[in-house]
Amino acid sequence: MSIENQSLREIIKSMELGEKLFNFNLPATNGKTYNNFDFADRSALLLVVTCNHCPYANAYWNRISKLANRYEEDNLAIVAVNPNDDKQYPDDSFENMKRLMVQLKDAFVYLRDETQEVAKKLGAQRTPEVFLFNSKRELVYKGAIDDSWENANAVTRVYLEDALEASLDGLEVDFPEIPAVGCSVKWKPGNEPT
After folding, report:
1. Domain contains 79
2. What is the rounded CA–CA span in Å between residue 173 and residue 4?
3. I want to staple 50 with a disulfide (CB 3.0 to 4.6 A). Which of 57, 67, 118, 142 is the partner?
């Protein structure tokens, strides 16, 4: 089968459910640098691959902030990660990321994946796309946040919230993978996953 006929999912090696979170070390908009061990005391860790410029990503910022507030007492860590090439998409620059977090009142940590290695290791394809890790840091859910990116009031399926509830209760996630809908990750020229 030629590469042109393969789906993007087949070309990009995606993290498999049950795989352990890898080590990372990335700068955040709040001036700190974070690694995976900084969240070791959390009951679950949600990585949200996202960006500033994509309309799908923008539609979810407030919903992610609400999730951060709602699950704070449950000891959930929400971490947004922007891997996009800011040379092609200046809205995704680190400075613009900082401005966005000021608007969102720093509801969660927002990391810059300049080398795009974190996005590659996750197998991220879309913005936004979520990766939920349980207390043992095993991947238990990946994909979509819900079923209506355009209108929060029209949501009928809360895929991520269902996964969060199950994971935080120590249960297995019923639907551990729902394809994400969004813009493609904007890879740097020559840095596209193979």
Report:
1. yes
2. 34
3. 57
Q: Quick one: CA dihedral 163, 169, 171, 174, positive or negative?
A: negative
Note whether residue 58 is domain-resident: yes
Please give, one letter per residue, the 3-state secondary structure of 113-180.
CCCCHHHHHHCCCEECEEEEECCCCEEEEEECCCCCCCCHHHCCCCHHHHHHHHHHCCCCCCCCEECC
**3-class SS at 111?**
strand
pLDDT for 163-175, tens place per residue? 999 999 999 999 9
- CATH value at residue 144: 3.40.30.10
> 21: which DSSP letter?
P
Give me the domain span that covers residue 83: 17-31+39-184
6 domain residue, yes or no: no
Looking at residue 13, its pLDDT comes to: 73
Is residue 76 in some structural domain?
A: yes
The identity of residue 60, as a single letter, is Y
- pLDDT tens digit string along 51-109? 999 999 999 999 999 999 999 999 999 999 999 999 999 999 999 999 999 999 989 99
pTM across the whole model: 0.92
